Queue: 3 jobs
Job 1
Amino acid sequence: MIRVLLALIFVLFSLNASSIDEAVKLAKKEHKLIMVEVSKKNCPYCKALDRVIFDNPERIAKIKQKYIIVRLKKGRDNIPSFFKIKYYPTTYLMKNDGTIVDEMPGYMKSSDFMEFIGEVYRQEKKFL
């Protein structure tokens, strides 16, 4: 039981990147795609996405099997200018070379979110 708990903690806190450059390096090494979630303070939709996706250990563990996650916050982090953000949150899915494959502006319920990122992965995994 303790080993399972320690493994889950390791998965939750590993393979996150603090920058796009770091994510690209990790994604190439791990043969994964990159997920960049951009949010802002006091955004109710950002908080909802956190609650249903990013605060859920099972969903995060599932995502981290296929994606390197980068979480950026407007006003706190340096958000690259190539992200054309219109709505918060916005989730970008990228190849392991940093090319944007798809984006999801706004909030999406958890089942739709997981289905969306799963479909993108199925389409892009052949390029990893």
Job 2
Amino acid sequence: MNRNHAAAILISISAFSLSAGALMAQDSGAMKSMPGMHMDAGAAPAGSADAKLGDLDISGGYVRAMLPGQPVGGGYITIHNTGKTDDKLTSVTSTAAGKVELHEMKMEGEIMKMREIKAGIPIPAGATVTLAPNTMHMMFKQVKTPFKKGGTVPVMLMFEKAGMVDINLPVVSAKGN
């Protein structure tokens, strides 16, 4: 990976994962929080997408606008399982991106680590699981056209038991509002 590509990825992650003014540095493949860094999961913006699929209530869905040159986009959603049976979000696809991965960001000491969640995200019975900035999220790769504020991004959420649901996620500002 060349330096320009690495820098573009770092800018992209910063743009959809951190609030304005946050700083990130790369150290041995991991991201380190800098002094004074503010990391804000934030609430779903007004006009976010909602859906119902069996016992699953899906709400607060949105994606952030992409900055020029940003190669990836971030998407967020809340899933509440009102049923008595556990389920799992197994995958997400979108015609707006060549690939959508489920990711997790975690602070380990002062190091921010991000990894793909290949096994899917469990949605326990009676629980609410939120995909939000700086935690679990959808990462849109190979984006065909950068997400622009005011647009929508079609996604298909696939669940192990409930099946699949199509939803259009509104595009909010790169800051998440």
Job 3
Amino acid sequence: MLRKIVKKKSRLHMLGYKILYSDSKLLSDENFGLSGKPDYIFENRITGKLIPAELKSASIGDSESPKHGDLMQLVCYFILTESCLGSRPKKGRLIYNDYMFVIKNTRRLRNELFSVVADMRDMIKTGKHDVEPSFPVCRHCVCQGTVCEQIL
């Protein structure tokens, strides 16, 4: 079985790649209504393949997966990289202080992002949400402190 997320020791440098972009300007996609500034987008010197990378100041510790909000942020950068730079990344990196995750750009993750964004937009529009606030549910939620007033 192929793993979609691989945890490795944290490092930024990538042999054979050059930095193509470093949060210098806002990337936007009007079709999906997304915008953002990835920390870095690397380009393979030979193949031209692009890899977005997002640095996080936190540590991940023993967790076998990245924080959900961070994962959704990277998936947004997959879409922005494709629409703004014309090349769909096959993978990206979430780099924490202690570990990094190599994430494959899958249809399932993209659909999950679209669902999260639709829920957030609906919350903004209606002011309503169906979540019963609780620490385990809300602590890693991408909406916490933004469109949702629940702060734990």
